[in-house]
Amino acid sequence: MAASLISKGESTRVLEQALAACCNTVMNTSQTCWEQQRPDHVGNIMMKSQVREGSLESTWLRWFIVLHKVIATDTKRVLAGVREGTQVALAVKRGSMYQLYSSFVNQDSALTLRRIGAWQWSAEDGPRSHISSPLHPPLATMYRDFGGRQLVAAVVDDWPFFRVARGDDGTPVADSGVDVSLLNTLAEKFNFTYSVVEASDGQWGAILANGTVTGMVGLVARHQAHLAVNEVTITVTRAQVVDFTQPYFLESTVLVSQAPAARDRAFAVLSPFTLQVWMLVMAATVVMGLVFAGLNRVRSRLLDVEIADYSLETFSFNVFRSLVNQDSGTLPDHWPLRIAGFSWLFFCFVIYSAMYGGTLTAELARPAYERPIDSLSDLLNAAHSYAPYHPVVVLGSSNEYIIKKSESGIYRKVWEVFDPTVGYVTHFSEGIEKVLTGRYVFLNALFGSTIQTAARGRHRFHLGRESFYPQGYGVACPRGSPYTHQFDIIRYKPTVADDLMGENGLHNSPRGSSVNVALVRQRFEHILIGHNF
After folding, report:
1. pTM for this prediction
2. Which residue from 55, 134, 226, 383 has the least number of CB within 10 angstroms?
């Protein structure tokens, strides 16, 4: 689609057709027209206001502008406030001839104009033109080579994806990591250099209630960076403010918790019953001692019969001996005591043999380690246990978004047990460290979790066996960016992560050892493939 021009005569009408033919643009579509009435407002009215406020910045929209009355600053003002990705063709009338200009991005990443030819028309000779290049060059051709431009990449310090170092002057520079390799490959392929800018809040990016966009995504959305490539998950909300390439890496989320601790067996003998049950058993023992002593005294006084004189201490001790399945050594010599004794022995049989003995056997047969947290269901059970676990997420991350915005299902249940006072961290490495400080379960991407835990000692952590929330990482570019689709050629080899964690990888690292960074770099030297590589 192209925006056409108000014409005041045959010359402008033919010029319009000629411009359309040069750009292979069919002019029979719905068109919007402007007429230049006040040259000093060309930039503000025709381009900045109409494009920006109308959200018309798009690689699919091509602009044709004709200036009939020109002052010296008009050609400079035409592109005022227009961003990269908006293609503009300009025809400036100089006497009977139109000078033709085409927009391009210079080495300083500024949109500017260059002269590409001239065109004129007369009734006698018809149109004559000399054009050295297309008015609207194909973007695929323009961005096949950036011509050595320096782009700005928004990043956060996030090894193993992107480690940020400091230059001699303190400025951030790319050091190592998976996405550093990706960015270097892009730079080599498309002939650009890059500098990095860190998100001041250390966040990946979220849209707040007031419309503010945080993190790396915010830098790109505000055109303070040309791209963000640092484990940036593609989400619906982020895609509202930036454009994403196709996913270059597919990932899932796992639960990271402390390695299951050995169970304390010091008080295993008391474990079959709770404290309340033990107190009730003790109270029943005391009461039965009083009952036996009372029955013995009542029979002696009412019937005036000589009986064995047992003290309260003797009866209480015999009751206890029966409880622990020991012979009391005495036999009741009258029926009231025999009935009470039978009732107590039956109670002791149920408590000791059936309940206590069976439960103790089952307790001792349990594994020596606590049950690991392998799934979201395990996490919910652990969150409701006597010593609850707390889920942890990175503030503003896609994992926070999925549990916070879910209206039903298990994600919603996880959010209901989430405690914001202890559940938020600002960085993935902070989340891994927090797991070691207490009963916390960190929701994090599988690959990053594997590297991060291996670096701190794999034996100290447990990674859940079940993964969830599949997600893709993409390169974030400004809305309407003309080079977004160029970067779609990048893909990670699907076997890289498996190879890295396989036979010669991190799973077999000695306990407590750090990750072999040289091995990680070597494995990722050839992780990138592309259709045109």
Report:
1. 0.66
2. 55
